[in-house]
Amino acid sequence: MTSRLMIVLALIVLGRASFAQTKINRIDSLLNSLNEKGKLNGNVLVAEKGKIIYLKSFGIANEATGEKIDKNTIFELASCSKQFTAMAIVILKEQGNLSLDDPIAKYLPKLAFYDKITIRNLLNHTGGLQDYLSIMDTVFDKHKIAVNDDIITIFARLRPALEFSPGTQFKYSNTGYALLASIIEKASGESYASFLKKNIFDPLHMQRTFVFNRRLHPRKIENYAFGYIYSKYLGKYLLPDSIEKAKVVFWLDGVVGDGTVNSTVLDLLKWDRALYTNKLISKTDMQQVFSPAKLDDGSFTKYGFGWKIEQHTDYGKVVRHSGGWPGYKSDIERHTDSDKTIIVLQNHYDAAEPTKIIRSILYNQPLVTP
Q1: For the chain, which terminus, N or C, has the lower number of CB atoms within 10 Å?
Q2: How far from the centroid of its chain's Cα atoms is residue 202's Cα?
Q3: In which order are the strands placed within the sheet that holds 340-346?
């Protein structure tokens, strides 16, 4: 190799490294600014082809003790839990314990009157079920903590009409994913938490990931991020348990499937890497997880099994999910064509959502205000 060619190659490598560093600096500047304005409190991880290019912690995990957030801090994932529920169902399918086209009544006989709804409908939000939170808000004794069986019992008693015929429309449904958790328990003979631990978290060495019902089954967890809501009246952050409008965190604490998985950004990166392999399920079924649902009229939704699916001219295929629950915000975004990953976990409910602007920086696109 000539010396001139070596110099040219060295300059190319340096140029790429400089451009990459510029991206990282821009991301860091953005996030520092949001943190200084009180609009970012949590962990942010950005990876390319599995290699972490940015990882930083912002703010406080526990307002009572002043404990700071670090890279191993554990957060409630809220609706980002749905991807694990969906994966558990597909694992059970591969184990021969259920079929995706089974009617839900096979596993939940109390709901036999919903005879047209299948497991697949629950996975891709095409079942037409009404939202359990709004129904239970009017009939459930909020001095108690509800569990999944309470939802099933109340639906069996009230028989809420479907909002549309299964398979004809898409409507995001927390009810569907709560029922999926109960189906997992029925089909496996194990608790939802135990099945996920044994079949997903342990095989992937996600040692700081688990299902946690903090009010129903309280226990001390090291390096745990308590979720907070800011009170303008008091000028400080409060636990949602002390705020009347957020008491849902207490009386729905026992419901699993649509939430209650807790994890860290580093464990979620392990999860991200596994989704490019067949460690958990076959390649064919993994493709199904990330394929949009087809409705009865032949049109397609923008949701697979526990993942929102987007196709972008600049970014290629993006599979993502966000989560929100009083005190928490979560976001995981995977760019499967270019293998980029953005994970944001926060324990302030009024925080900004920086994922889209991080995406813009990664692709050198015009910035979108978070």
Answers
A1: N
A2: 18
A3: 51-58, 42-48, 340-346, 328-335, 316-325, 308-312
What is the three-class DSSP state of 42?
A: strand
Rounded CA-CA distance 121/169 in Å is 10
- Say what the pLDDT of residue 13 is: 40
The radius of gyration of the chain's CA atoms, rounded to the nearest angstrom, is 22
pLDDT at 16 over 80: no
Residue 239 has pLDDT above 70, yes or no: yes
Percent of the chain predicted with pLDDT > 70: 94
Please indicate whether residue 79 is annotated as part of the active site: yes
Paired strand residues for 55: 45
Residues 6+ apart with CB under 8 A from 168: 126, 128, 295, 296, 297
Does the structure show a pLDDT above 60 at 9?
no
Mean pLDDT of 133-161: 97
Q: How far apart are CA 255 and CA 362, in angstroms?
A: 37
Closest-CA residue to 86 (of 103, 100, 76, 106): 100
pLDDT in tens, 183-205: 999 999 999 999 999 999 999 99
Residue-level pLDDT at 12:
42
Q: Which of 3, 18, 33, 79 is catalytic?
A: 79
Q: Sign of dihedral through CA atoms 146, 148, 153, 155? A: positive
